[in-house]
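[Meeting: bench + compute handoff]

Bench side (C.D.) handed over the final construct sequence. Compute side (W.E.) agreed to return the predicted structure before the next meeting so the bench team could plan truncations. Sequence as handed over:
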Amino acid sequence: MALDQGTSSSRAIIYDALGQVVTVAQAGIDLVCPADGWVEQDPEQLWQSILTVGRTAITQSGLAAEAIKAIGITNQRETTLLWERASGNCLHNALVWQDRRTAAQCQKMATDKLVDGRPVAEAISAITGLIIDPYFSSTKLTWLLDNVAGARQAALKDEICFGTVDSFLLWKLSKGQSHVTDATNASRTQLFDINEQAWSKELLAYFDIPQGLLPKVLDSAADFAVADAEWFGAPIPITGVAGDQQAALIGQACFAPGMSKSTYGTGCFAMTNTGAARPYSKQQLLTTVAYRIAGQTSYALEGSIFVAGVAIKWLRDQLNLIDDAAETQAAFERCHGDSNGVVVVPAFTGLGAPHWQPDVRGLITGLTLDSSRDHVITATLQSVALQTAELLRAMAGDGAGVNTLRVDGGMVVNDALCQFLADILDVQVQRPKDVETTAKGAAVLAALGCGQLADLEDAASAWQLDQTFSPLMSRESRQQLMEGYARAVAQAQAG
């Protein structure tokens, strides 16, 4: 069983021994935004949603709980929690990866130096493969320690735990027996040395974080914990864990260096497997742990976009232009993929890669009296692909050019989006039969961890192609669209 705790929802998917879906259960998750740029979630809702979907999936399947061989967990990554060791209760709402409240701290970090005189930005890049941005867990954790009453004192007394969502769920499922994470999630905290595969003492000292707060780091397929029988009806081993984007890479069977995927959920995340190589980007991309299995680490080059599917939700919930996400394809087709000059820059929580500007805000440009509802919808859908094009151009600049892109996530059921992606990227886009590859990756890791799969090659053989989309757009049209988007981004950056 895969437990997929995402930004917008929690899901449980049960797979059979051949990797086919038996049943799916899903529950929505609320976001809390107490101030501009602040994004939180209720930890109790995260926990209860996982219990609900797990129990529902088992009931729907008709299986006895004892028939579930293992659990794999995948999760929204950088989201940060602090909880009491004694009770498991959190000290504050979870600070979600989208949260930008530490932007000022990050600005100061850009000019700071470590005690050895190295610029902090340089050290963070060399040690973690990341850049300075509120996106990551480090500054979120320091904010909690400094702003939640009694938190720092409790940390010094070893009374509280830090973790990303996977660690929190493992703690709760094991009733406090396991304070662990895996290497992929650790690599997103900005506290983990991806070269040494250990917590960085230099960065812990810089951020003033006691090491006792941190979970033990395991391989992505390992004995993480046992889910107590109270939760699902029988004790179930948890043998696979990975952050959601790494899990999607695994679910897409991108195991060879050079293979690439892009996931379209709340945000968009493009990732290229680089194998044992750790390329340090000159294009403001991220180097991260792709997975660690049997002590062997594979790395990836990643570009992160903060707004993808959430832009479609914005069209529905805030602008009331659609009632359902499926309507976007019809609108796109009515316009024949032409936004009539309208461009949307969906920088609702700042710009991610390759810009990394947390203070930029979104805009709509190119509006005229001829602009229609369908033009705005089309431009919003196009913005997802145009952001992806920025990422792939940056990857090419780092020597990791992409010829074929495997896509997944809820948005890619939209044929119009997939075709526009192929057109604007000028690459073949492959959509698998199972687009929920994040959960699939968690299941693969669990199967590896419990011995049901022998190796990654077994997992690769189960990947099935649904459709390939080939580029049809002219070079001139592609260039015109990219230049128009670049001008709009520049307008957004200028404020």
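W.E. noted at the follow-up: The longest strand covers residues 296-305. C.D. will use this when planning the next construct.
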